[in-house]
TrEMBL record:
It comes from Flavilitoribacter nigricans (strain ATCC 23147 / DSM 23189 / NBRC 102662 / NCIMB 1420 / SS-2). GO terms for cellular component: plasma membrane. GO terms for biological process: cellular response to phosphate starvation. Residues 294-510 form the Histidine kinase domain. InterPro entries: BphY/WalK/GraS-like, HATPase_C_sf, HATPase_dom, His_kinase_dom, HisK_dim/P_dom, HisK_dim/P_sf, Sig_transdc_His_kin-like_C. It comes from the Bacteria. Its EC number is 2.7.13.3. GO terms for molecular function: phosphoprotein phosphatase activity; phosphorelay sensor kinase activity. Keywords: Kinase, Membrane, Phosphoprotein, Transferase, Transmembrane, Transmembrane helix, Two-component regulatory system. It catalyses: ATP + protein L-histidine = ADP + protein N-phospho-L-histidine. The chain crosses the membrane at residues 21-45, 254-280. Coiled coil: none annotated. CDD domains: HATPase (cd00075), HisKA (cd00082). This is histidine kinase.
Length: 510
């Protein structure tokens, strides 16, 4: 008794130290994990910020290109209107003559109504005389005027060649705005070419709010680009505003973020596997110690009874007392059978015979059930009543060893885990396709819900320590049953038997 108490104290001390070490290890692992999560999150945030800045610079560059393209298109439209006015005698009359001093060709712009001279222009690229004008001269003149007009329009300046022509130019420049639809389509095309499909708006105004509002609106803005030169025309600025740019920015940084996420997931998985392995090893250690404790008790009990019976036979004169002699022999035989069954169970587990090759044969399952129930009724130290199926025979083709192991273990558990006053066992048997279903129901103590998913694990015993102290066992009986059922191609289920007890349901499908 003292030795057992000392051993249990040592076990509790050992497991207490192990639990403390595991707690410290868990704390260190959690700290490392949080540090890793923080670092990876910080790196991902920095990458997102960098991609956001690059995205904003890219948007500004693309929009600047679109604005410049539309400004050039507007100048082209103004030049086209100007050239049409030059060709209209109702707007301006142009005459060419030789300058009296340097003999350059001079072109006079005159009002068509009053013939008043508005402006004279000469080009140093030619010194052709008036009397040598060729058919190509007007074409050359128009080309030079187009270049001059394009230069003036790019600078948003107006040259009043004549009053009427100047007013026409001023009206065209004032009334011909930037084509926002074309600007929108151009910018959309440039974004699509880079696989950026975010929605955007183009704002045109004389001024815009500060960039601080950008973060509040969850947008990305380009810089404000002037649509006209800084001249007499009212200043107009154009700005592109990308709505909800987070998805586009996220796509640009997806590889970095995905890499960080992969590192985090792999680290989490590693920590989980490491910690679960530690807990599993701790559980195995506890189960091993419990198994050794239980198996020691199971071995000591029949050995002690045998020693007592043998000592009694040796020390007392029982040869002349047949009833005593027979009693001691019966005790010895019973304990030897108990010891043999225990050793057989351990050997069965160690050799893995329950999951090895099977030899099937024709047999009567009812015969196996009757033999098993008779055997356990005689061995039981309590009242056992068994209700068998109302069948004479139930022929099957299966493994006698595996079926016997299943029936014996289930009947033994039903008897052991019940009240001392007795137990009633109800055995049900029916066909199911090519196989059969065997149910063994009892009105014993039942199995707690938290234990049901573990009862088929090797060495597992009930979480009720008082029950384990009352009924000793190795924790491998139901494990053998589950292995045998699986070898036969079936499955086993556990249910509550109302109002009390357990139903073990074995389904053999072939």
């Amino acid at each position: 008794m003292f030795v057992n108490s000392l051993r249990r104290w040592k076990e509790r001390t050992y497991f207490s130290r192990m639990t403390k070490r595991i707690s410290i290890l868990l704390g260190i692992m959690l700290f490392c994990l949080l540090a890793l999560l923080f670092m990876q999150g910080y790196l991902a945030y920095q990458e997102f910020q960098r991609q956001q800045a690059d995205f904003k610079a890219l948007v500004n560059e693309l929009f600047a290109q679109s604005v410049q393209a539309e400004k050039s298109a507007r100048v082209d439209r103004l030049v086209h209107l100007f050239m049409e006015d030059l060709d209209d005698p109702g707007v301006v009359i142009i005459q060419a003559h030789r300058h009296p001093e340097d003999e350059l060709m001079v072109f006079d712009f005159m009002d068509p109504d009053t013939r008043d001279l508005g402006t004279s222009i000469s080009f140093r690229q030619t010194i052709e005389l008036v009397d040598t004008l060729t058919p190509e001269t007007p074409i050359w003149f128009l080309e030079q005027m187009e270049k001059q007009a394009r230069k003036d329009f790019n600078a948003e300046s107006i040259v009043f060649w004549t009053d009427r022509l100047g007013e026409r130019i001023k009206r065209n420049m004032t009334e011909l705005p930037v084509d926002t639809a074309t600007l929108h389509n151009s910018f959309r095309s440039k974004l699509d070419s880079l696989d950026i499909h975010s929605d955007f708006t183009i704002r045109i105004d004389s001024s815009f709010a500060s960039a601080a509002d950008e973060a509040m609106e969850a947008t990305v803005r380009s810089r404000a680009h002037p649509l006209f030169a800084d001249t007499w025309i009212e200043e107009k600025l154009a700005m592109a505003v990308i709505d909800n740019p987070s998805y586009a920015i996220f796509r640009r940084s997806i590889f970095t973020i995905a890499g960080s996420a992969a590192v985090i997931l792999l680290t989490l998985l590693s920590f989980y596997l490491l910690f679960s392995t530690i807990l599993y090893q701790k559980k195995l250690s506890e189960m091993k110690d419990n198994f050794i404790d239980n198996i020691t008790h199971e071995l000591q009990t029949p050995i002690s009874a045998l020693r007592l019976a043998v000592d009694s036979l040796r020390r007392f004169e029982v040869k002349d007392r047949p009833e005593k002699f027979a009693s001691y022999l019966q005790i010895s035989g019973t304990e030897l059978n108990r010891l043999s069954e225990l050793v057989e169970s351990i050997l069965l587990h160690s050799t893995g015979r329950e999951s090895g090759e099977i030899e099937k044969e024709s047999m009567d399952l009812m015969e196996l059930l009757r033999a098993a129930t008779d055997r356990y009724r005689q061995k039981a130290e309590k009242r056992v009543s068994v209700t068998l199926p109302d069948r004479e025979e139930f022929p099957v083709v299966s493994s006698r060893f595996h079926l016997t192991t299943i029936i014996d273990n289930l009947l033994q558990n039903a008897i052991r885990y019940s009240d001392q006053e007795g137990v009633h066992i109800d055995v049900r048997l029916e066909h199911s396709g090519p196989g059969f279903v065997l149910e063994i129901a009892d009105n014993g103590w039942g199995i707690a819900p938290e234990d049901r998913r573990h009862i088929f694990e090797k060495f597992y015993r009930s979480s009720d320590q008082d029950r384990n102290y009352t009924v000793k066992g190795t924790g491998i009986g139901l494990y053998h049953v589950q292995q045998c059922v699986a070898t036969l191609g079936g499955k086993i289920q556990v249910h509550s038997n109302h109002p009390r007890g357990t139903i073990m349901k074995v389904i053999i499908e072939k």
